[in-house]
Design brief:
five-stranded parallel sheet; 236 residues; 47% helix; alpha/beta; binds BIS(adenosine)-5'-pentaphosphate
Length: 236
């Protein structure tokens, strides 16, 4: 007899049932917003950056290949990332949708994802394009600190913890990512411009792109995303 999927009893009344993609430069706020949206719909938050960092922490062969590339602020080859993502969305917790943060990042990744979503019977994704200018990006990246226990994201300038260096939620230590040093920001922005920004035109052509002004407050950006979701439900 086939086993039925494990579906939490307390699912929200409104289901996502699709992939949401957060597209935007480093530090635009993809992780901050993607986590909140995934929690609201009780679906997985799939950050390819976090997955790669987990592989590095666990000392896997994938982590060993990815680490020097990430430390230089370059993109990890498509083949490695695609295998990782394909394996992840196979899992039953993805059956009601999922929120991508930092994926896809090249046109080849987007094309592959399109095929993958079709194969899994999902409708077309909703793409949230977070737009923010470079001056703000630098402040957000260099000020970011991340809890080493629960992953909560802080900012020394805009969202400081109550106690310096400690997470408000669980007291975990707040760390700076190795690639958040100022000298790595320029290569990361260059990689975004060259390899990822063509996705804006790609998804616009497909009619799936929703522009959001990400220079506003976290709450304001969240409201713009909620509106985009409402629009997307009626359109595609
Ligand atoms: P990844 O981890 O994806 O990093 P990224 O894309 O550079 O994005 P960030 O995590 O830096 O920023 P974010 O937009 O999530 O901002 P956040 O919400 O944290 O990738 C790291 C590396 O992994 C890549 O360089 C690459 O090497 C590799 N990689 C990953 N995916 C890959 C792929 N698909 N293909 C190939 N390689 C891949 O916010 C930033 C700060 O701003 C925080 O401090 C936050 O508190 C603050 N903030 C957020 N929103 C606001 C707001 N509205 N107002 C004020 N402050 C805010």
């Amino acid at each position: 007899m086939a086993t039925s999927p494990v579906v939490p009893e307390n699912r929200p009344p409104e289901e996502l049932n699709r992939a949401v993609i957060f597209l935007g430069p480093p530090g635009a706020g993809k992780g901050t917003q993607a986590k909140q949206l995934a929690a609201k719909f009780m679906v997985p938050h799939l950050s390819t950056g976090d997955m790669l960092r987990e592989n590095i922490a666990q000392g896997t062969p994938l982590g060993a290949r990815a680490k020097p590339i990430m430390d230089r602020g370059e993109l990890v080859p498509d083949s490695l990332v695609l295998k990782m993502v394909a394996g992840r969305i196979e899992r039953p917790d993805c059956w009601h949708g999922f929120v991508f943060d930092g994926f896809p990042r090249t046109v080849a990744q987007a094309q592959y994802l399109g095929e993958l979503l079709k194969q899994h019977g999902f409708r077309r994704p909703l793409v949230i394009h977070l737009m923010v200018d470079t001056a703000l990006i630098l402040r957000r990246i260099t000020g970011r600190r991340v809890c080493n226990v629960g992953g909560e994201i802080y900012n020394l300038y805009d969202r400081p913890p109550k106690v310096a260096g400690r997470c408000d939620n669980d007291g975990g230590e707040l760390l700076q990512r190795p690639d958040d040093r100022e000298e790595i920001v320029a290569p990361r922005l260059h990689a975004y411009e060259k390899q990822t920004s063509p996705l804006v035109a790609y998804y616009k052509r497909l009619g799936l792109l929703h522009d959001v002004d990400a220079s506003k407050s976290v709450e304001d950006v969240k409201q713009q995303i909620d509106k985009a979701l409402l629009v997307a439900r009626t359109r595609h």
